[in-house]
Amino acid sequence: MATYDFNLVVIGAGSGGLVTAYIAAAVKAKVALIEKHKMGGDCLNTGCVPSKALIKSARLLSQIKKHKKYGINEASVSFDFADVMERVQRVIKTIEPHDSVERFTSLGVDCFQGAARILSPYEVEVNGKVITTANIVIATGAGPFIPPLPGLDGINFLHTDNLWDIRKLPKRLVVLGGGPIGSELAQSFARFGAEVTQVEMGPSILGREDEDVIALVQSFFELDGVRLKTNTQAKEVVVKEGEKFLVVVGKEGEERLPFDEILVAVGRRAHVSGFGAEELGITLSERQTISVDPFMRTNFSNIYACGDVAGPYQFTHTAAHQAWYCAVNALFAPLKKFKVDYSVIPWCTYTDPEVARVGLNEKEAKEKNIPYEVVTYGIDDLDRAITDEEAHGLVKVLTVPGKDRILGVTICGEHAGDLIAEFVLAMKHGLGLNKILGTIHIYPTLAEANKFAAGMWKKSHAPEGLLKLIEKYHSWRR
Fold it and tell me: What is the rounded CA–CA span in Å between residue 422 and residue 291?
């Protein structure tokens, strides 16, 4: 086309779409942002924000129940689950202005509320109006994957989109899925007092983590009353005389698990249809996400994709990371373009204890046959963790054999998601454990665990020959 209405049209106002539009507007491009449902996407409305608000309330209950270990003889609490869920909504409303139409309009973004349809690589229809654009970014996100489980469609079941509408605590809750989402919610509901049974077809929950980490998290789940059913396959949902059951097959054969509510948390599926991508012929990957090249381009050179719809990571922060590449490459190619950098991707599972990771863990290193050394510092030895009655967990660091270069870090414990940031920075900028060891850490803080892990590496790599010479030198001086 000779001219366009916009330099860039962004479809979807979740993390990826919002950051793309923000960057485009910041560099003075004319950008349109189209959202058919709620600004902020899943993260704000049904994902990160509400789940972390719920986790916080559940954790407070857990701490009150453990009052005696804090030196408090008596403590009691009463709550209405409806009030807890209303607090979740209040938190969403408080954060909502960060992602609002008003904010993005003030930044110079043209916001459209409605369903987008791509008509051609240069035309998008919204609310019956066709707008033209030099580039398109698809950021339509993902939604809960609902497995074809017989009988499930015959009942009202919960998933991460509709969970936030309930106001009554289920007496008996079955959580289907042992990944991060299922695990976070299973533990939280158990702490509110629900009888929770978590069903996972694999040998453990959080199956991507190392065995010592899994064991620690599962021990906390058992203390919180979560009934774990691992190596267990869901077979069907049946309703008999008004009672609902999940039929499962495990090590002990077939079993019926009664429930009042069932929460399906077995994964997420990218939103790749309903907006013209299929009709246009945009290519999908084997994972049924939109296929993109290292520059975040689809098979159309001016159509990009980022976030959950593109993968390979389904994190809010990776969506924002990809968004920068989409915006810059769309607006400045062919003058300048950048390949997306996935070399250092951190994430955290917000169970109690938290599990944060960046780079390789032992399980992945062994699978990929990557040589490594490992040091593990037990947080049960850390002064601040002891004073806080949170003396559990570990910092595990994988390094290149004989060197202090970090291959990966796993932290399991209190505020692990915050503590991992130091290692993320180190890996991103090529800093080794010696640099962390040489950095002053405030006493007493949990962050000292990072320094002590680096100290353990240093001790195991002490120059024995040089130390013997130094010992002789000191002996000579006495």
Answer: 32
Q: Which CATH class is domain 152-266?
A: alpha beta
pTM, 2 dp: 0.95
| pLDDT tens profile 343-387 | 999 999 999 999 999 999 999 999 999 999 999 999 999 999 999
How far apart, in Å, are the Cα atoms of 63 and each of 75, 214, 302? Answer: 10, 22, 52
Query: What CATH topology corresponds to 6-143+269-332?
Result: FAD/NAD(P)-binding domain (3.50.50)
Spatial separation of the C-alpha atoms in residues 61 and 188, rounded to whole Å: 10
- Burial classification of residue 49, based on how many CB atoms lie within 10 Å of its CB (0-12 exposed, 13-18 middle, 19 or more buried): buried
Using DSSP bridges, classify how beta strands 268-270 and 142-144 pair: parallel, antiparallel or unpaired. antiparallel
Superfamily designation of domain 353-460: FAD/NAD-linked reductase, C-terminal dimerisation domain (3.30.390.30)
Q: Are 378 and 452 in contact (CB under 8 A)?
A: no
Q: Cα dist. 460→238, 374, 406, 407, 472 in Å?
A: 57, 10, 15, 17, 21
Q: Give the number of residues written for the chain.
A: 478
SS3 277: helix
